[in-house]
Design a protein that fits this description.
- With 450 residues, this protein is α/β, with parallel strands linked by helices.
- It is built from 16 helices and 17 strands.
- The radius of gyration is 21 Å and the shape is globular.
- The strands form four sheets. The chain has a nine-stranded mixed β-sheet, with helices on both faces.
- Helix 5 packs across helix 7 and helix 8 packs parallel to helix 9.
Length: 450
């Protein structure tokens, strides 16, 4: 890595899957507010729905998600009961037209920890309450170690058409260090099951910065992943936060690659994927030429939300499940992380929201600037400011903030347009932070830039 890039690679900066980021959410936050926002939605609003399933069969040491390993399936069954009750409560408040849910996403944890009956029950509740649109996207995350040919068919029969696998790395020494053993052959078989069942999109997640990884090993993993031709591949840097995620203490700090090694791994993966026909999308996504994400990135319609880069242009995101975050035109609302508190509020027929933020007009304007930069690697901040009714002078301080980044070559400023060279896309978050009115640099508050 060029020595000029090193200070930026080690910066703690937000991932900007929202603006303002979740760090700015207020606690406590009136749960009635999110209900009011739901009631106030435009009757013709299109919807996206996120369902969080906080359970896994086995805990992976690298995981930063809100999840756990239940002592028995009974706990998951009770969770589904509360989840369906909350969906029905929200549906009773909804006054919009039915059939406008264009995107449904099950995340976790591992959503397929649930049995088919319970997944179907949740899908049915959403369809009855809000209405799934014909031809919409239905996606879920899954563990390839538990996917069978029969289950792939059942999920496709429910309407699911996109699935994401947490591959991370195919090298056995790495898998042993992170407590996730899954062979290349197993992932290949699971991918074939999905294709045969009719899934139109298969996504893989890869990681760099894990213990025992080398430039050579990640290159081989990228080659193996590309050989299976998943439609999309996401590549994330491991965030080591054992003070926040206690199970990460199982990973020895001394075995983690340093910042130069992480940078070399990330850029090696990108080169390998590009060589195998994958276009670089935004910060950390890759997609084949035919994929709608590639098309959206090319024509400037790609979006970014809590699930990462997406083609989802819905007017509101409804979120169900412990810790799930919803987004409305007026702001953000997050359900209680603690499942006991979450279930108790649902028992009282209340919204389980405990954190949130009512956004201002300036927040929404800055959100669009940051989103376009994160999606397009370039943004005309003045043009967006004027469109939202703000004087472009609101960004007069940006060029000064970016002086070090401009000198290092990771940012370019011409008049009111700020751009990040494609070869430095890994530093997109650092440049985006210049538009963040709330950002305060603090150690261990956000993930490292690289």
């Amino acid at each position: 890595m060029d020595s000029q890039l090193l200070p930026f690679a080690t910066q703690d900066v937000p991932r900007y899957t929202s603006y303002p980021t979740a760090v700015q959410f207020q606690t406590p936050f009136p749960s009635q507010t999110s209900d009011d926002w739901l009631v106030a939605l435009d009757p013709e609003a299109t919807l996206s729905v996120y369902v969080h399933i906080p359970f896994c069969r086995q805990l992976c040491w690298y995981c930063g998600c809100h999840t756990s390993v239940p002592n028995s399936y009974d706990r998951a069954a009770r969770y589904v009961e509360y989840l369906v009750k909350d969906i029905r409560h929200s549906a009773s408040l909804f006054r919009g037209a039915k059939g406008k849910v264009t995107h449904l996403h099950f995340g976790g944890g591992t959503p397929t920890y649930l049995d088919d009956l319970h997944i179907g029950e949740i899908v049915e509740a959403i369809d009855k309450g809000f209405g799934l649109s014909t031809g919409g996207e239905m996606a879920l995350e899954s563990d390839p170690r538990t996917l069978t040919r029969e289950r792939a068919k059942v999920l496709a029969g429910m309407g699911f058409n996109r699935i994401s696998f947490g591959v991370q790395d195919f090298a056995t020494p790495v898998q042993m260090k992170i407590n996730r053993l899954q062979t290349f052959g197993l992932v290949r078989a699971a991918t074939e099951f999905l294709r045969a069942a009719g899934f139109t999109s298969v996504n893989f997640d890869l990681m760099y910065g894990l213990p025992a990884q080398t430039v050579e090993s990640v290159a081989k993993t990228a080659q193996q992943a590309a050989s299976l031709k998943p439609d999309r591949i996401s590549v994330f840097g491991y965030a080591h936060v054992p003070w926040f995620k206690k199970h990460q203490k199982m990973i020895n700090d001394a075995e983690l690659p340093g910042v130069n090694a992480r940078y070399a791994q990330a850029t090696t993966i990108e080169r390998e994927l590009n060589a195998h026909g994958y276009a670089s999308i935004g910060l950390d996504h890759f997609a084949l030429e035919h994929d709608e994400l590639t098309v959206a990135a090319r024509n400037g319609t790609m979006r970014r939300n809590f699930q990462g880069y997406t083609t989802d242009v819905s007017d509101a995101l409804l979120a169900f499940g412990a810790s799930a975050i919803g987004e409305f035109p007026e702001g953000f609302a997050q359900s209680a992380r603690d499942t006991l508190e979450w279930s108790q509020k649902i028992d009282r027929n209340e919204s389980p929201v405990t954190r949130g933020l009512a956004t201002t007009a300036e927040d929404r304007m800055r959100a669009q600037v940051i989103e376009r930069l994160m999606c397009d690697l370039s943004v005309d901040a003045a043009e967006i400011a004027r469109r939202h009714g703000f004087d472009p002078s609101i960004f007069d301080d940006v060029a000064e903030k970016l002086e070090p980044a401009i000198f290092a070559g990771i940012a370019e400023v011409k008049d009111s347009r700020v751009s990040v060279p494609a070869k430095h896309r890994l530093f997109l978050r650092t440049v985006a932070a210049a538009f963040d009115a709330h950002f305060v640099a603090a150690p261990n508050r956000h993930a490292k830039a690289v």
